[in-house]
Amino acid sequence: MRSVAIIGVGSTPFGKLEGRSLVDIAVAACREALADAGIHREKIQALYIGNFIGERLVGQGALAGVVANRLGMSGIPATKTEGACASGGIALRLGVLGIALGLYDLVLVAGAEKMTSASTAEVTAGLATAGDEEAEMRSGLTFPGAFAIITREHMARHGTTREQVGLVSVKNHGLGAANPKAQFRKPVRLDDVLTSRLIADPLRLFDCPPISDGAAAAVLCPADWARDLHRQPVRVLGTGHATGPATLWEMDDITTFPASVRAAQEAYAMAGITPSDIDAAEVHDCFTTAEIVATEDLGFFARGKGGHAVAEGWSAPDGKVAVNPSGGLIAKGHPVGATGCAQVYELVRQLRGEAANQVRNCEFALAHNLGGTGVVSTVTILGRL
Amino acid sequence: MRSVAIIGVGSTPFGKLEGRSLVDIAVAACREALADAGIHREKIQALYIGNFIGERLVGQGALAGVVANRLGMSGIPATKTEGACASGGIALRLGVLGIALGLYDLVLVAGAEKMTSASTAEVTAGLATAGDEEAEMRSGLTFPGAFAIITREHMARHGTTREQVGLVSVKNHGLGAANPKAQFRKPVRLDDVLTSRLIADPLRLFDCPPISDGAAAAVLCPADWARDLHRQPVRVLGTGHATGPATLWEMDDITTFPASVRAAQEAYAMAGITPSDIDAAEVHDCFTTAEIVATEDLGFFARGKGGHAVAEGWSAPDGKVAVNPSGGLIAKGHPVGATGCAQVYELVRQLRGEAANQVRNCEFALAHNLGGTGVVSTVTILGRL
Hints:
Two copies of one chain form a homodimer. By secondary structure, chain A is α/β, with parallel strands linked by helices.
């Protein structure tokens, strides 16, 4: 396999992007990534785009072809991937493999979602399609509900406290405050989290990500071309993609997602590094608890110690590993299909030394994207070239 | 690149599959393909599945992970592709490339759609998401409407007659009558077509495919393994994937789809054969006119002569090239995401000599899948191994 580099990234701001369609924001992120890479659109040989529920929320399917056409790239093979909240991570992985395996030399990867134009009820029902409808979600379970159950189990099994869970929100909102692309730009105190509106006991409003619009994109090429094309290329060191149980009731232990563990193992093995080498990680904190679970599944902290770790500051920017320096899904926002690519946008900027909450001496970075309650996960490891 | 073979295919019947969910039918087609290949599910290294609007019509997203889990393959990387009606063809292409480029040795590819549980209005609105919502479909255009405009233009520009267009329906319903998997099993006369209910002038009910449930699947491996695994493996000789304009108003000539032309050129070049070598073709007859356009875009007949060709019997099973021997989308049915894989199901059986409407001495076969009004297309060329 050829070594792959990222030579350009782009992202819209995340939030309520009034008057801008799903296609508009995908195109904007792609143009920013192409400009950052200094690559003309006509040089791009393939497009992969992650999107979850454009057909349902905004009436737009076939997004890859529509975006290719709007970008003036009509002709090239364009592929939309969907794996719920991991849609963007899957698109990125296909782009990386396309270059690694020698199929293409210049690939554009993007993720996008437009959610704020739909009602909260429509969004909640749409997000619930990430579960196994027939085998679990038909019961009326929602994703806040599922992660509330997981939170209770993490507390019961590992002694995690409600306060530790809330500290994820405090950390991430604090980081989001400094990120100009973030949806929420205001720090919150632990007391704010613990007294915010109850959503699904014990999860409260500030344990949850907002409903967001947003898109992010990256331009990929073979690593041995990268130095000639960009002053600060980033190398893709490893990639992993795995599936897991689609329902909670099939899992032996609902405080760990086998798909994350397997995808991470694959990515670490390919990169030839270990969790302790990672300086910055964007992990899938679709709820506060999900960050705690992710930091354990990715091997940053011992099983059951994710709550303790955040309380000790181990996941702060100056801790053992900076977790979600962008503010994560909780503060930066979670336009579902965009998230996997937005994580890479942040980490490329970290590795270049350009991030809003810059992690010192950032050499190795990891992006972790999760779909549903662990039905699919991708992990990507990046390093300086 | 390694040469790729298909060693197993499966398909549910197409039609109204009462009481069977989207996941159920995808799993059934996959199991049939695995059984045909004689491969245990644990040997499969990756799953690609095409589906268009499961999130919208039946509340089921993240289909690849959910199906992998239900099949007992939880763990493997599973990817859902969506490119409207070409979703299945894109999944197939990714599976072929995964083996061709040496990433995997045994891959399962599937396509599935469950449509009959939704209302006709929901289906029509859902299908319309295959167009560019903002730039064209917001006008109220539907797909029958778009293909009616294309039909009128084909008649005006090329002298195609309403009768010639109707003869596609007569041919395909006649072939579907013999296909046990087809939704419509009754021949129709030209007069039946021309007096059937007007849908979008000049297209009538029998010019349109039905609303269908169905799934199809295939097992792929390197060609040099195939002889040891199946008595009659089929070789994938070529694959093409291209995009085109997303709206009618951007096209210089709406009687040809540049995406089909480009995907076909790519596939023919890879296979090292020409259109006249093709013995059987499953083409994307989402409307009668679409078959006429496809037979021209694929190079079977001269530009503008597709209507003449069907009237002359050149696309009949004993003609120059047997077009849609399965009955095509019009008679076999069109569960959107399944179609690209169902075409390959039919062609593998043609190449093995097992088809319901067997084409004599079938050596080379072509599958053509189209999304929207040509926003994306895939072409796959198969031959005997």
